UniProtKB/TrEMBL annotation:
UniProt-listed Enzyme Commission number(s): 2.3.2.27
Cited SUPFAM superfamilies: ARM repeat
Source organism of this protein record: Quercus lobata
Keyword check for Transferase: yes
Function: Functions as an E3 ubiquitin ligase.
Full protein name: U-box domain-containing protein
Reactions catalysed according to its record: S-ubiquitinyl-[E2 ubiquitin-conjugating enzyme]-L-cysteine + [acceptor protein]-L-lysine = [E2 ubiquitin-conjugating enzyme]-L-cysteine + N(6)-ubiquitinyl-[acceptor protein]-L-lysine
Keyword Transferase part of the UniProt annotation: yes
Sample GO molecular function, one term: ubiquitin protein ligase activity
Gene it is expressed from: LOC115967539
One of the Pfam families matching this protein, by short name: ARM_PUB
GO terms (BP aspect): protein ubiquitination
Domain U-box, chain residue ranges per copy: 57-340
Keywords: Transferase, Ubl conjugation pathway
Length: 340
């Protein structure tokens, strides 16, 4: 009797759940698989871990690049370069492994080799190499020697003048890193026609903040005191750099402001640079405004520029147009007191 009662209850439960069970009262073979939820699809997909590059693998690729470069095998070099780019995109760990196993020197040699043959013929390859070299610094002496050769520097300047925005960005990034390692390259670079125009154009027609910063830094190295700095500075002034810098300073981000102020301080070392600064109505208000607002470095550059302009201004202090009067009207006295 108890057993019968239990069976009746079980049967009632089955009736209640009939509508919710897709298999109830049906032949299993007639049930569509689309009506069933796949437990595999419901589970969270776990990506397959990427196997990191090993030093042996990197060394092997580098050896193959050396052989392909010396044979002038353009196609093979491009394939091997693609492998290095792929490693770099996978992880920062891979990038470190690639950099630490001599790849920068090998790619510098490849860039030099193709640049020495023909820039126009190998422009795509040179652009690809530059895109990888941007994360290969710092380079050793051998790599610096290859990239700092007249052939390599000529190629970089050609790309700066004629390349697409991405290639120009990579070229100026590499050039900036190269000059930071060896400022003696300024002598070689200054002899290449169009380098000043190319760097100013990146500031005048910005590609991205990173490219603008790299161009300003490169200019800063080029106009730093040397036997040719006055001539280089004068050329940059002729190209309207003072005006472009004041425009940048109006609303630029911190990193760009610091570099722009550094370049302006360097430009004011020469007479032509100071004359352009005196003529620009934005110079004094912007210098005073940027003091104590951006960073310690920016303040230092601004004060340095003010001092150079004050020291060399030949106008009478009572003249309403004198630099000293302009500075006082802009609030320089109060800010200098705060600095003291």
């Amino acid at each position: 009797m108890i057993l019968c009662s239990w069976r009746r209850r079980k049967g009632n439960r089955g009736d209640d759940n009939e509508s919710s069970d897709p298999l109830n009262g049906k032949n299993f073979d007639s049930v569509s698989l689309d009506s069933m939820e796949d437990p595999i699809m419901l589970s969270t997909a776990i990506p397959t871990p990427v196997v990191p590059a090993t030093p042996d693998e990197v060394s092997e690729i580098c050896s193959q690049i050396v052989v392909a470069t010396h044979c002038g095998d353009h196609k093979r070099c491009k394939e091997l370069l693609g492998k290095i780019k792929a490693w770099g995109k996978e992880s920062e760990c891979n990038k470190r492994c690639v950099v630490n196993n001599g790849t920068g020197c090998v790619l510098s040699d490849m860039f030099y080799s193709f640049a020495s043959v023909s820039i126009e013929k190998h422009v795509d390859m040179l652009g690809e190499i530059l895109s990888v070299l941007t994360w290969m610094f710092p380079l050793g002496e051998e790599g610096q020697s290859k990239l700092g050769s007249p052939a390599s520097l000529n190629s970089m300047v050609w790309v700066l003048k004629n390349g697409d925005p991405s290639a120009r960005q990579n070229a100026v990034l590499v050039l900036k890193e190269l000059l930071s390692l060896n400022q003696r390259l300024v002598d070689t670079l200054s002899e290449i026609e169009g380098i000043s125009e190319a760097l100013v154009n990146i500031i005048r027609e910005p590609i991205c903040p990173k490219a603008t910063k790299s161009s300003l830094t490169s200019i800063y190295y080029m106009i730093s005191p040397s036997s040719i700095s006055v001539a280089l500075t004068s050329r940059f002034v002729e190209l309207g750099l003072v005006s472009f810098i004041t425009e940048i300073l109006v609303d630029a981000e911190k990193g760009i402001c610091e570099r722009a102020l550094g370049v302006l301080a360097g430009i004011c070392d020469c007479k032509e640079g100071r004359e352009e600064a005196y003529k620009n109505a934005l110079t004094m208000p912007l210098l005073v405004k940027k003091m104590l607002r951006i960073s310690e470095m920016a303040t230092e550059f601004a004060v340095c520029t003010l001092w150079k302009l004050f020291k060399n201004d030949k106008r009478d202090e009572d003249d309403d147009k004198s630099v000293l009067v302009e500075a006082l009207q802009a609030g320089a006295f109060q800010k200098l007191l705060v600095l003291l």
